[in-house]
Amino acid sequence: MDWLFPGSVDMRQVKFQAKHEEEFRHNYKLLIEAFAKKGINKRVPVGELVKGSFKSNFIFLKWFRQFFTDNVKNMDYNPVKARDGQEICPAPLLLRSPKTSERLDSVMDENQSPSLWFSSAFSMSPLHIVSGFWMFCPLLQKRQGKKQRRPEKEPLWWRL
């Protein structure tokens, strides 16, 4: 959003190290305020997004990609400078089903925990959308272009 409309988001208020729901909610609030400043009437299902709902995150990501494509005017943007050099911490993977947990446990070594595993683009916090959305565009382009063929031998990530 800051790339599209510089100054629409106070980047000093964005919690780039967000790991908890209340921090994600705070960042979504900043995004919603930026939308309001620009007269964008988009319902943002914050509750579903922070809970990691695949469908909600995917729908919102597709909408934002189209919104970004329609509004980008300048391809020159330095996200590191925009966030004043702060690191981005990926959102933790949200495990919801015992089946998924069992599969993850079988591939993780004993020193790791599920909280160290990170999510895909679809359960990211809004800080990634605010400061670095473009990095997910190729993923969507690839998926929209053609039907994905399942590999002969399924890798673990395919079943997650």
Automatic annotation (TrEMBL):
GO terms for MF: microtubule binding
Segments passing through the bilayer: 116-140
Keyword Heme tagged: no
Sequence ranges assigned to domain Calponin-homology (CH) in this UniProt record: 1-69
Keywords from the named record: Membrane, Transmembrane, Transmembrane helix
Domain of life: Eukaryota
Identification of the protein by name: Microtubule-associated protein RP/EB family member 3
